[in-house]
From TrEMBL:
<feature type="transmembrane region" description="Helical">
    <location>
        <begin position="82"/>
        <end position="109"/>
    </location>
</feature>
<keyword id="KW-0812">Transmembrane</keyword>
<comment type="similarity">
    <text>Belongs to the binding-protein-dependent transport system permease family.</text>
</comment>
<keyword id="KW-0472">Membrane</keyword>
<feature type="transmembrane region" description="Helical">
    <location>
        <begin position="21"/>
        <end position="41"/>
    </location>
</feature>
<feature type="domain" description="ABC transmembrane type-1">
    <location>
        <begin position="80"/>
        <end position="269"/>
    </location>
</feature>
<feature type="transmembrane region" description="Helical">
    <location>
        <begin position="247"/>
        <end position="269"/>
    </location>
</feature>
<dbReference type="Pfam" id="PF00528">
    <property type="entry name" value="BPD_transp_1"/>
</dbReference>
<keyword id="KW-1133">Transmembrane helix</keyword>
<feature type="transmembrane region" description="Helical">
    <location>
        <begin position="201"/>
        <end position="227"/>
    </location>
</feature>
<keyword id="KW-1003">Cell membrane</keyword>
<feature type="transmembrane region" description="Helical">
    <location>
        <begin position="161"/>
        <end position="180"/>
    </location>
</feature>
<keyword id="KW-0813">Transport</keyword>
<feature type="transmembrane region" description="Helical">
    <location>
        <begin position="130"/>
        <end position="155"/>
    </location>
</feature>
<protein>
    <submittedName>
        <fullName>ABC transporter permease subunit</fullName>
    </submittedName>
</protein>
<dbReference type="InterPro" id="IPR050366">
    <property type="entry name" value="BP-dependent_transpt_permease"/>
</dbReference>
<dbReference type="InterPro" id="IPR035906">
    <property type="entry name" value="MetI-like_sf"/>
</dbReference>
Length: 277
């Protein structure tokens, strides 16, 4: 990273309120865990390392053991990778598709806008969890399919935000001047309209990420999300649900991980909105 980029990053962080810094720290922590977690895990993810089940926290097992005697910390470090990267990937795909459709609808208008808008309204009328459940039941729940399903589920929400932004921009003078110069619609979309939508769209992508993490966790808790031998944070909660009456760390640790990730992302998004305002 260049010195200028580092200064800009430092200025951005110092300009955030304390809530934003806490949120940014939580998000950065889980990103680091998602990248490095499997390499620093003290035990193999599927290894049976404890003769007891639902052991309490100790010097040997920092987060106790699960319902099969596996190390919870090792499994959590591995599961965070699927939750974070599936959520980020699906949010990026959803926002890319939604924004592309929004720019197409805003610049072509007429019947193109009407067809796209009505199709998105139809999808948006179906509750996201029900839509995801139907798609999972129809297509299965492999990792690539889960990414696509979660992305498709949240395309309509991003489309509505992006279309409203694009519609406001296409009527401004600089777009009119670009049209008078004879620029193509594609050029206007990519060079005139999209750059002025970036900051709101980044905030919206952060919100989509939070929604998708919660959706993935809910699907996994129902047994329809990430399937063995893989596991995400929602899967860890589901498989250790029998330890709830014992107050086992095996169920509370992944639940707190989901909460800290989503709360941190929300704090960072709110702080970023205030900073831009």
């Amino acid at each position: 990273m260049s010195a200028g980029a580092m200064r800009n990053a430092a200025a951005f962080v110092t300009g955030l309120p304390w809530a934003g810094r806490i949120g940014g720290g939580l998000v950065a922590f889980w990103l680091i865990v998602a990248v490095a977690g499997p390499w620093v895990a003290p035990h193999a993810v599927g290894a049976f390392v404890d003769s007891e089940t639902f052991s309490p926290m100790s010097g040997r097992f920092w987060l106790g053991s699960d319902y099969l005697g596996r190390d919870v910390l090792s499994r959590l470090l591995s599961a965070a990778r699927y939750t974070v990267f599936l959520g980020l990937g699906a949010a990026l795909v959803a926002c890319t598709i939604g924004t592309t459709l929004a720019l197409t609808a805003a610049l072509w208008s007429g019947w193109v806008d009407e067809v796209i808008a009505r199709a998105m309204d139809t999808m948006n009328s179906i509750p996201s969890k029900i839509l995801a459940l139907v798609l999972v039941a129809a297509a299965g729940s492999s990792l690539p399919l889960l990414l696509v399903i979660c992305a498709v589920t949240y395309v309509p929400g991003n489309f509505r935000i992006a279309r409203a932004l694009a519609m406001n921009l296409v009527g401004l003078d600089f777009v009119t001047v670009a049209r008078a110069r004879g620029e193509s619609r594609r050029y206007i979309a990519l060079h005139e309209v999209l750059p002025n939508m970036i900051h709101p769209l980044l905030a919206d992508m952060g919100l989509r990420f939070v929604f998708i993490v919660l959706l993935l966790s809910g699907l996994s808790f129902l047994g329809l999300g990430v399937q063995p031998p893989y596991a995400d944070l929602g899967s860890l909660v589901r498989e250790n649900i029998s330890g709830l009456t014992e107050g086992a760390p095996a169920i509370f640790a992944p639940a707190l991980a989901i909460a800290s990730l989503t709360v941190g992302a929300n704090l960072l998004i709110d702080a970023t909105k205030q900073e831009k305002a």
